[in-house]
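wait is this the right file?? whatever heres the structure
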């Protein structure tokens, strides 16, 4: 067999046993806790203790990390790799809290599946909705985990209704709780309703609950009403057609639902099994201009995040690359599709929490960090062998806007260069209007953290300190020339229209949804379309 064919088969085989996913949730729903619980069940590959929980955020030295430490937020997107049942799972972190930014959305360009984590008491929350929107747009299938069932919360059926009503996504429970939220007795795996999985608090205050498989007749006798109610509800759901169906799950029309408590490790193993059994393996990826790159083809990878200046003494730049096809081997020279230039991968790292260790080989679905990647931008493709170029990364609906101005007008050249570069890198979106001119561009961001990064890098990297003046807008819609013109002359509605530099698209900015709606009523002739993840 030729070595190329053998490598292709190896890549395809490794791809088949990989699952690359992210957890989408609102802050405090329990993402860190779930991540730790997943890693506990699985065998973490790499350094233990670097699970990106809150405890892992210490002892860092560079200026980035200083910012991270003082603000208590995570700037670095981490990847956790672990093994489960002969499979390799890559869990990509989606930064939340105050560091919610375009990077959070971009992570979803690098995963094949998402676990939507819902707090049993709160149901669907704002950041979950936004992230779900992106999943839907990108066709990423979603597995749902209802967390904190050990605490008082809402009714299970009510939570399912909310998912169906708000997301037009059919919930198909795979596990069902015995006992209402706050009175968790166990779970029934609806595929095996002859048993109940009972969870018993471990003695001595250990966090992990003990799992016991109890036959249904014994469960009925011992759990009484709770088990009978669960059995009745499971029957009702089945009669209603709420049964897991892989095809509609992969098509983004239904979501398998799991219940549990990440803190007590309840239901986590079943979720982990679901990721292996239900989530898709890395697929062939669509190329710009049609066609796909099969996973067994030569190496190709997508840059989904670029982190600059993490270390002041090195001023390095790390590009996070998701391997899409073939085998990545450290040291190989690949081609940067955007420039056609060769790119040496001498400094490849696995990006595990904040620790970096060299990675020698990676397969489709894995993530590698390339250091000294000054030439790489978010959305870029790297490849070996036949040319591959993946479609550009979409830009996401910004919600924060600020006018940037140089502190020292004598440095306007450096100012323009810096702003242009940060825009190209995707650190922020850069908008201009005829009225404000190029010396006062409007920076647009998904999260305010992105502005801090701009201020920091403009001062330290481009020697052009800036002032940012916040604008009172929080909503952007795509518009056209008619809409822009109407908005700029309208006095009844507050807002303005600006051009997005990178793609030339026109954006209409409003303080809120009500202003946008009244503008639409006033000037129905202008286009006013939703952007991804705008509400
Ligand atoms: P996040 O990463 O999504 O922001 O959430 P995180 O895991 O930090 O969890 C938020 C809070 O919810 C934590 O409590 C955590 O212990 C708790 N939690 C997570 N999962 C469960 C669960 O299944 N059951 C219960 N009862 N609580 C859960 P905290 O008091 O804010 O922090 P900590 O001091 O306990 O760490």
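ok assuming it is, sequence goes like this
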């Amino acid at each position: 067999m030729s070595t190329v064919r053998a490598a292709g088969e190896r890549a395809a085989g490794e791809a088949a046993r990989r699952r690359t996913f992210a957890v989408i949730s609102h802050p405090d729903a329990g993402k860190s806790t779930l991540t730790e619980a997943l890693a506990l069940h699985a065998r973490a590959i790499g350094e233990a203790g670097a699970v990106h929980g809150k405890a892992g955020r210490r002892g860092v030295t560079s200026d980035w990390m200083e910012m991270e430490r003082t603000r208590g937020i995570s700037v670095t997107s981490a990847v956790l790799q672990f093994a489960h049942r002969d499979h390799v799972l890559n869990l990509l972190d989606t930064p939340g809290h105050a560091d919610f930014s375009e990077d959070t959305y971009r992570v979803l360009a690098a995963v094949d599946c998402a676990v939507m984590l819902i707090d049993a008491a709160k149901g669907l929350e704002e950041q979950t909705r936004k992230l779900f929107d992106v999943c839907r747009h990108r066709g990423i299938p979603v597995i749902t985990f209802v967390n904190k069932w050990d605490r008082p919360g809402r009714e299970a059926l009510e939570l399912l209704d909310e998912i169906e009503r708000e997301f037009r996504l059919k919930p198909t429970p795979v596990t069902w709780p015995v006992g209402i939220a706050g009175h968790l007795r166990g779970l029934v795996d609806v595929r095996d309703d002859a048993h109940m999985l009972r969870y018993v608090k471990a003695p001595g205050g250990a966090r992990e609950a003990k799992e016991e498989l109890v036959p249904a007749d014994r469960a009925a006798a011992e759990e009484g009403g709770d088990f009978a109610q669960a059995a009745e509800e499971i029957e009702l759901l089945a009669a209603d057609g709420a049964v897991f169906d892989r095809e509609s799950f992969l098509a983004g029309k239904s979501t398998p639902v799991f219940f549990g408590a990440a803190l007590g490790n309840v239901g986590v193993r079943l979720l982990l099994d679901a990721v292996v059994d239900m989530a898709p393996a890395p697929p062939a990826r669509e190329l710009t201009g049609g066609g796909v790159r099969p996973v067994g083809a030569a190496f190709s990878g997508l840059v989904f995040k670029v982190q600059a200046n993490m270390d002041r003494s090195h001023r390095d730049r790390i590009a996070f690359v998701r391997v899409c096809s073939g085998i990545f081997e450290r040291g190989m020279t690949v081609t940067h599709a955007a420039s056609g230039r060769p790119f040496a991968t001498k400094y490849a790292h696995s990006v595990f929490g904040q620790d970096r260790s060299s990675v020698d080989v990676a397969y489709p679905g894995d993530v590698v960090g390339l250091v000294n990647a000054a030439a790489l931008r978010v959305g870029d493709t790297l490849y070996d062998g036949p040319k591959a170029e993946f479609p550009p990364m979409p830009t996401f609906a910004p919600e924060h806007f600020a006018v940037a101005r140089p502190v020292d007008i004598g440095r306007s050249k450096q100012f323009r260069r810096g702003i242009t570069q940060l825009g190209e890198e995707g650190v922020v979106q850069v908008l201009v209007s005829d009225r404000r001119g190029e010396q006062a561009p409007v920076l647009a961001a998904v999260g305010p953290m992105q502005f801090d990064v701009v201020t920091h890098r403009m001062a330290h990297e481009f020697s052009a300190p800036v002032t940012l003046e916040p604008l009172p807008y929080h909503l952007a819609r795509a518009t056209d020339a008619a809409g822009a013109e109407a908005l700029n002359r309208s006095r009844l509605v507050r807002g303005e229209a600006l051009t997005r530099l990178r793609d030339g698209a026109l954006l209409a900015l409003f303080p809120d949804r009500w202003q946008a709606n009244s503008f639409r009523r006033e000037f129905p002739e202008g286009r006013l379309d939703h952007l991804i993840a705008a509400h």
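Residues 25, 27-33, 147-148, 150-151, 261-263 surround guanosine-5',3'-tetraphosphate (CB under 6 Å). so i think its the right one actually
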